[in-house]
Design a protein that fits this description.
17% strand; 457 residues; alpha/beta; two-stranded antiparallel ribbon; 15 helices
């Protein structure tokens, strides 16, 4: 299906520009592990994950070495635990999280997602127990990631769930206060969550997915930046239309490489290939930044006037190039702007070019939402719920995925720094308006109805 010679011919152009496959994520269906006996559930979960994923890391490394393209992260996503663990109380949900963590450690993956609940229209018992368990589960495990979908274009916004998640985020931050609230870095609150995300912390295996599937997350912000730099320094007549075309062609090449590696991994594991997620996912490394792309385009910094339209152009070009390269594009697919995980974006926030309000505006045109944003630890639950609900509204009204991965850092104030380490990076703590005030609107609860354009049958 793929022309290996065509793909390999691009590698010389792309090397030394931080090209990699950011993640290969194996989705594993755990619904046949269900039982009313907790020990039975735990044994079945551990056995199934270690059976299906025992060779995942080895095969990813072998395929990456074959093509000279590293697979940086190997991960697992499982069926929503709120459904699998529906008979159990919160304490038992924590035990399930611990067995997921143990299985992930055994097979050598860095994260396992799927400690998840889907509550956009209402909260069932299993959902409530899982949500109650999230703070302790994330504090007592290292590799488990959680996600909760509280809104969708078809259902509207479950404001009861939004308020509940504000409480959960505060508790998760408090239980990891000695590490700047890092527990919240493993928790995403979503609107319109896709069922096939390979990136953490939002990954889970959707209800309609296969027994096991390989989803790939490609990256390459450094590749896009260098392509723009070369074009603009060459003296060629480049306007924004031509730059958009250049980004599209670059995304095409990166996607072809990602699908080649993903399909070969799936074949070697005798597993179904799922999707390629096209997202430009940065790291804290210099040269691997989405923020630097804006500077290559001539903006002083991400966050200054012109940023939103530039991001819209980049996001659209990436999607067009990737969609032409692969018939199986999924996940989030666009551009991430995680503040702490991108050194340039973190610097822009510290320099005052990027505010929480500007970040919210950018999320109307990018892949996700308020991502890895550190805020003062004394931000009230009402204010936190308002931030989440505003982000959910952008996703619901625009029929797109949005999310909040927001971290109220205990004991710290705006202007101080939070340090998360590794891929999660570090960031200045961003100011929040009315962070201590009450907000009666957020306590009204209920469900904000779906917008009129949800009736599109």
């Amino acid at each position: 299906m793929l022309n290996e010679r065509e793909i390999l011919s691009t590698l010389e152009m792309l090397k030394n520009e931080h090209l990699d496959v950011r993640t290969v994520t194996m989705g594993i269906n755990l619904f046949d592990c269900a039982s009313h006996d907790l020990e039975c559930v735990k044994d079945r979960i551990f056995s199934k994950i270690t059976e299906y994923a025992s060779r995942l890391v080895l095969v990813c490394d072998q395929v990456g070495d074959k093509y000279g393209i590293p697979v940086v992260n190997k991960r697992i996503a499982v069926s929503p635990v709120a459904i699998l663990g529906a008979p159990f109380e919160a304490e038992s949900m924590v035990e399930i999280a611990k067995i997921l963590n143990q299985a992930a450690k055994t097979v050598g993956v860095d994260f396992i997602g799927g400690f998840s609940a889907l509550v956009e229209k209402g909260i069932a018992k299993g959902d409530r127990m899982l949500i109650e368990a999230i703070p302790q589960a994330l504090a007592e495990t290292q590799r488990v990631c959680a996600s909760v979908n509280v809104a969708s274009t078809r259902a509207g916004i479950n404001m009861d769930a939004v308020g509940l998640m504000a409480q959960v985020i505060k508790r998760a931050a408090g239980l990891s206060a000695d590490r700047d609230g890092i527990g919240c870095a493993k928790l995403c609150v979503f609107a319109n969550i896709p069922q096939d995300i390979p990136f953490m912390a939002g990954a889970y295996l959707g209800i309609g997915e296969a027994e096991a599937v390989i989803n790939v997350g490609v990256s390459g912000p450094g590749v896009v930046k260098k392509a723009i730099d070369r074009a603009l320094s060459s003296g060629a007549d480049m306007d924004l239309g031509r730059i958009s075309e250049l980004i599209k062609r670059t995304a095409y090449k990166v996607t072809r490489i990602g699908e080649l590696i993903g399909r070969e991994v799936a074949e070697n594991l005798n597993t179904q290939f799922g999707v390629v997620d096209l997202s430009l996912a940065p790291t804290p490394n210099v040269g691997d930044s989405v923020g630097e792309i804006f500077q290559s385009l001539g903006l002083h910094s991400i966050g200054v006037p012109g940023t939103t339209v530039a991001l819209a152009m980049i996001n659209d070009a990436v999607k067009k190039g990737g969609a032409f390269a692969s018939s199986h594009v999924g996940g989030l697919s666009g551009a991430f702007i995680p503040v702490s995980e991108d050194l340039n974006i973190s610097d822009a926030a510290a320099g005052g070019y990027l505010s929480l309000e500007k970040l919210e505006a950018l999320t109307s045109v990018c892949s996700v939402g308020l991502d890895m944003v550190a805020i003062p630890g004394d931000t009230s639950e009402d204010t936190l719920a308002g931030i989440i609900a505003d982000e959910m509204a952008i996703g619901v009204i625009n029929k797109k995925t949005t999310a909040c991965r927001i971290i109220p850092v205990p004991g710290k104030s705006a202007g101080e720094h939070a340090y998360f380490g590794g891929l999660l990076g570090q960031s200045v703590i961003m100011a929040v308006k009315n962070r201590e005030g009450g907000n009666p609107f957020m306590r009204l609860g209920g469900r904000i109805p779906a917008p009129i354009h949800s009736l599109n049958n």
